[in-house]
Design brief:
Length: 81
Amino acid sequence: MAIKEHINYMKPRLFLSFLFLLFTIKGQAQSADTVEMADLLRSSGKIYVVVTVMLIVFIAIIFYLFSIDRRLKKIEKDKSL
């Protein structure tokens, strides 16, 4: 039974790893042409604002997912008793 639980535990992580791999490959497959919007943001220094906001949103989503996971584990633990 422990192997089956381990497999179920690993499925979402494997899926996310595969998804991130696909995004990485797609990002590397982009052409080397210049992107005007990125150049404009970089030249005016606003690219740092964009990156900071994206990072804050990403961290907030990760925090939210971990908090949901923690609550679900607590509910599952209480239910099994």
